[in-house]
Every structure is written in C-alpha cells, then in structure tokens.
Write the structure tokens for this entry.
Amino acid sequence: LQEAAARQQQQQVGGRLGGRAHARGRMVNIRRATLDDLVAMQSTNLHCLPENYQMKYYFYHILSWPQLLYVAEDYNHKIVGYVLAKMDEDLSKGLHGHITSLAVLRTHRKLGLATKLMRAAQKDMEETFRAKFVSLHVRHSNYAAFHLYTGTL
C-alpha cells in the first residue's frame, strides 16, 4: 500500500514538475519520501554533508511534515538525493517553510536534481501550508549551493 501511494505521488510530481532526469542515459525519479527511505536519506547525508542528523530527526520531519520530504531515486531504486524540509515554527516572520537539508550524491550532480527536489518541497509548502517564503542556511564556502539558491531558484 505504501509503495502504491509512493508511485502515485511520483506520477503527480513527475507530471507537474518534470520529476525525471537522465543520469548516464537512465531515469532518475523525484518522489515523496516514505518511512522506508529514511535510512537511505541519512546515508546520502553522511556521504555528502558535514551536518549530520540522528535518525529521530528524520522521523520527526516525516511524521510532522510528510508532504515536504522528497527523494531522487535512480533506475535501481537507490536514493541518490533528498530534500528534508519543514514548516518553520517561529511565526514572528510570518508563515514560512525551511529547508533543513538538501543533498545529491556526486555521481548524480549537474542533472538538475537539487533544483527539482527544492521546487517539489517549495510547491508543497505553498499549496499545503500557504507558506509565504522559504528560508535556508548555507555555508559561505558552498558556492554551488549559493548559486543554486540565488541564481536558479
């Protein structure tokens, strides 16, 4: 049942956001994350980023905002990227979303996956929660991320 729901979400995301990208001639799908994806998301995080989270933090996100976690899955059903997003609980700036973490394995970069993951989460923040904007934090030394957030999105 959970797999059928994930396939349905994949089709919906693919239809509205161009949820597929080609990696060396093969397809990569963008779909909503499920509980079964959390270990692979954590593994991707450990391979890509210096900021790492305990599994309970992934559970907190998927239980609180299941609409806002997306994965990029290759043709072998391997998770090659993810976005971990949430609605910010500090309402002093108005209702807004926050990108907690975004990562794509090196083997699958330069395919537009980070952009597709971000847009999927952003769209659901707007449509589901009526978010007015999205915030995130970027290290000054992460030029690729800075370019993505300022030049592409």
Summary: The mean pLDDT is 82. The chain is about 40% helix and 25% strand. The CA atoms of residues 1 and 7 lie 10 Å apart. The helical segments are 2-17, 38-48, 55-64, 113-129, 143-152.
